[in-house]
């Protein structure tokens, strides 16, 4: 099975980085083929410019975007690992979707509306946050993030979401709690 990890965190010593490494290790132990797109490491340009929009709309994407699309096409499973910033994904991750999930690649418009073109692909999302569950859930912020990402992007493009896990209060977790989170993430990988 081919698995693509799309990762967004600038700090190589962050808990997100440890999570990414644990995911890679577990997937390799399960004998899956794994590729990683570390958006900061590859210096992905998230800014969609007017000329990009016109090009992408016409499905005449530049080579760097075509490369990202080939990586997605190769994958059976997509894994996204990122922190929550301002109740959403980092701008570099949002820009990745703006530029890579283009009309004609990830979806297309028909007379009956949009049709997802990434059918058959599955996704797992591991999202960290510094806020507590009690801070986010009563205000419907978790539901809003799930709706925006899971339904508004992935499901819209035909991707089946296996899980979207939030890991709360990250700066306040002790080492044992962080180890439990990593083990929980590893356990989630068995279901793919």
Automatic annotation (TrEMBL):
It comes from the Bacteria. Residues 1-187 form the Flavodoxin-like fold domain. Keywords: Oxidoreductase. Gene3D superfamilies: 3.40.50.360. InterPro entries: Flavodoxin_fold (IPR003680), Flavoprotein-like_sf (IPR029039), NAD(P)H_dehydrogenase_qn (IPR051545). GO terms for molecular function: NAD(P)H dehydrogenase (quinone) activity. This is Flavodoxin family protein. It comes from Metabacillus lacus.
